Amino acid sequence: MSSATAPAIPVVFALSHRELVRFFRQRNRVIGAFLQPIIFWLLFSEGLRSSNLGYVHFYPGTLAMILLFTAIFATISIIEDRNEGFLQGVLVAPVPRMAMVLGKVLGGSAIAMIQAILFMILGWITCPDVAPTPAQALLATLLMAVMSIALTSLGFLIAWRMNSSQAYHAIMSVFLFPMWLLSGAFFPQGEEGLLGWIVAINPLTYGVAGLNHYLVTLSKTTIPLWRCWLVSVLFAVVMLGLCWRVAGSRAKGDFVS
Length: 257
Known about the structure:
Keywords: Cell membrane, Membrane, Transmembrane, Transmembrane helix, Transport. It is built from eleven helices and no strands.
């Protein structure tokens, strides 16, 4: 007989806190996480200036890149936890599975949000065309929180069935990197044909467009703001629901017989 008797909130807090502690104890990871988006922003923006696309165009895309890759990388800890036996201990404990899912997802989302907020402030200070009002900055932060939860949940979903971080990196290369490239973060939106169709069904497109609305003074995006919120929230809810469902099933290596 088994029952979930432990309260959920302490479990969520403990697992989220563990993700943050693990991140800040890895000094090289912290340095790389904060420097990489700045380097990418500088290099890509300089490269795109010849196409009349520069720092402002690439700014919301860099925020999306931070959220996507930080959130996804954070969920590699699921594979590490399984290989080290920690995940098996959590799974046999009398705690709700949704608490375990939320603990991992919110921990990864918090790491992504810390980096994204710091980069948002950097752009606000250094780029004249990035001039949101305080209300717009707050709404952009809320939208980034929704995006980070959706993307961390996506990473959770992919990592749950894997027992190799190398395989996880391979999935990132063939699936997640194109997801970012085809979100309007790199190429301008509004393309027709197959590329336009792919951009339209990519949920990250709407997050990038929403950040464009809030943060860029002369935003050129044509996607309505309400649609940006609707798609982003639905993306987060669906991904969280799928995480809950997949965490309720057994994966190879979850239990030691």
